[in-house]
Amino acid sequence: MCTTTSSTSSTSPSKNNNKKQKLNNDDDGIPVPEITQLDHVALTTHSDAFGVDPLPISWGHPDPMIRGPVICTVRHSSQRNAIGAHSGSYCIYTGLAVAAGKLNPDYVPNLKLTSPVFKVGPHPSWSDPKKIASIDPFGHLVTEAYAKYLEKGFDIRPTIAVTKAHIDLPECREAVAAKRLIPDGKILLASGQSICSKAAIEPVWYLPEVARRFGCTESYLRQSIFRMTNGMYPELITRPDIKIFLPPIGGLTIYIWGDPDTIPDEDIELTCRVHDECNGSDVFGSDICTCRPYLTHAIEECIKTAQRGGCGIVIYYRKEGRSLGEVTKYLVYNTRKRQEGGDSAANYFNCTERVAGVQDTRFQALMPDALHWLGVTKIHNFISMSDMKYNAIVSTGIKIENRVEIPQELVPADAQVEITAKVFHGYNAGESYKNIDEKELHKTKGRDYNYDKPVLDEKVVPPSP
Fold first, then answer.
1. Which residues of the chain have pLDDT under 50?
2. Which pLDDT score is estimated for 31?
3. In Å, how far are 20, 42, 45, 72, 235 from 4, measured between CA atoms?
């Protein structure tokens, strides 16, 4: 049975215990871990209950031992130096597992065989908070960089996992059949499978720099997150000294075709797409947007680049529905289709703002961090038309040579509304979409919601030449 402890609970460390802990440090300077008894619940709003003696963090220091590990597990409540929990939104499922009796809350992962299968970094950008503030650059090196902490009994979790995979996409098999892709047995197999390296990353925010990028004070950032999460993290308000936050949001996945070691070399071709999640299109093939065809086109270009001796990168962010969520996205779809005059490019962005109060909450200010973690300083082929993504990347010092638009023949029928609206409002048109003007904007219409009528084969009608 769980009970809630008060600020005088025996599970809360006293000042004498803190002093004793510091005196018990070995010559290595690493403190003795204090293990929290999990048969009680210590409220973080009570004194002496959370982060009483947090391990120091020197964000941006190139030496991981001086920088310090991120401590955000439940076993060391007095020594925690981060707000939030590991696994992003999935931390709730961890709580359910404990409640269901399926997971021992005292369990510590066995990380013996989990080290990265290929090397990433360190890079100069790792020690520059203006380039990395939403990722722990040492998050994949826990078993190496913080081995001494682990040996002492600290529960430190990786926030990055690095592995390899075979990718099997029907579009790649089609490209092989059409001879757009030629199997080489190394990057691309005769089956159409491609061989890649990949990394999964959970967000770790350094709040002072996040605030700077959004043009507000750290205090206002903390207050805004606290308010809009209905007070989910009181430590954002009560512990301004703790600067690290693990937000309950989705992370990102990096897919790499070719040799990752070539990424920092500006003389070796690098092709890149930064893609924001769209479950309806990416997974199920919904034709209301260009997401899946643009993604698979980028993968094809990454494979070709790797076969030429370069490297291809796709970074997949969990930012469903422009970070407004899938429910909001579907409400917007209904608004687009039911508005007077039907779905139109002219009202594409207005419909989102009418439902959500804002057009887009992806705010690409944090997006380039993943590129800097890889050591990217120059992108030769940027497979994106987004002005927001382009501006965010180049503003951090990364050079982009070529911007590659989605081929017209890949734009689905009902996605003409999206592509026309985006190009008219600032997306890079390239040669394919350079003639989109106000007339084209008002002319472009989408499919009606007449699902009670027979559906005829539709033809893609590209913008006027």
1. 1-23, 455, 460-461, 465
2. 83
3. 26, 6, 12, 20, 18
Per-residue pLDDT tens digits for 335-350: 999 898 899 999 999 8
CA–CA distance, 431 with 433 (Å, rounded to integer): 6
Confidence at residue 19, expressed as pLDDT on a 0 to 100 scale: 42
Burial class (CB in 10 A: 0-12, 13-18, 19+), 346: middle
User: Which of 360, 387, 437, 447 is flagged as catalytic?
Assistant: 360
- DSSP lists the bridge partners of residue 198 as 163, 255
Give CA–CA dist 97/84, Å, rounded: 18
Q: Which of 80, 362, 403, 414 is catalytic?
A: 362
Predicted confidence at residue 118, as pLDDT, reads 95
Tens of pLDDT, residue by residue over 386-414, are 999 999 999 999 999 999 999 999 999 89
> Would you give the distance in Å from CA 272 to the centre of its chain?
15
Give the model's pLDDT for residue 9. Answer: 31
SS3 string of the chain?
Answer: CCEEECCCCCCCCCHHHHHHHHHCCCCCCCCCCCCCCCCEEECCCCCCCCCCCCCCCCCCCCCHHHHCCCCCCCCCHHHCCEEECCCHHHHHHHHHHHHCCCCCCCCCCCCCCCCCCCCCCCCHHHHCCCCCCCCCCCCCCHHHHCHHHHHHCCCCCCCEEEEEEEECCHHHHHHHHCCCCCCCCCCECCCCCEEEEEEEECCCEEHHHHHHHCCCCHHHHHHHHHHHCCCCCCHHHHCCCCCEEECCCCCEEEEEEECHHHCCCCCCCEEEEEEECCHHHHCCCCCCCCHHHHHHHHHHHHHHHHHCCCEEEEEEECCCCCCCCHHHHHHHHHHHHHCCCCCEHHHHHHHHHHHHCCCCCCCHHHCCHHHHHHCCCEEEEECCCCHHHHHHHHCCCCEEEEECCCCHHHCCHHHHHHHHHHHHCCCCCCCCCCCCCHHHHHHCECCCCCCCCCCCCCCCCCCCC
The whole-number pLDDT of residue 202 equals 96
Q: What is the pLDDT of residue 50?
A: 60
Q: Against a cut of 0.85, is the pTM above it?
A: yes
Active site residue 273: no
Query: Which pLDDT belongs to residue 359?
Result: 85
| 67 is an active site residue | no
